[in-house]
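Appendix B. Chain record.
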Amino acid sequence: MIAETVCSAVSAAGLGIAVVTAYRRRFLAAARIAAYSLIPVGLVMTGVVGWLADTAFSPTAWAGFGLLGAAWVLFATTRAVERRRGGTRAERRAAARGSQRDAVAPTSSAPSLGPATRPASRPASRPATASRGSDPADDFSDIESILKKHGI
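C-alpha cells predicted for this chain:
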C-alpha cells in the first residue's frame, strides 16, 4: 500500500514538472518528463511493484538469489581457469598425445614471394624509389606537394 502511494506521488510530481516545462515552451522536454513520470503508475497498475515488494521481503527469494550468484561465480571462475590452462581436459589430453607422437620439430614453409608466375630463384627487384638517388629532398617532394595542396 505504501509503495503504491509513493509511486503515485512521484508520478504526480513528475507530471507537475512536465506542465511547468511545457509552460516554458519546451514541449519536447515536457513530453519526455511526462513519459518518465507515468512509468511508476504503470508499474503499480501491472503488479510489478507488488511482486517486487513480496520478493524483497522474502528470505526464500534472497536465498535463491544468493544461490544464483554463487553458481555464476563458480561458472565464471571455472571458465577463467579453463582459458588459462588452454582448453578443456580432453583438448589438453589430445594435445599432449599429439606432442608425444610428433617429437620432431616441423619444417618451415617456403616464404611467399608473390605471384606464382615469378620463379622462386629470381630475387625481387628493387623499388623504383631507390634508383632515383639518395637526395632527401626527392623523398619528400610528393609529401610537400600534398601539404601545399591542402594549404598546410
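Further analysis of this model is presented in Appendix C.
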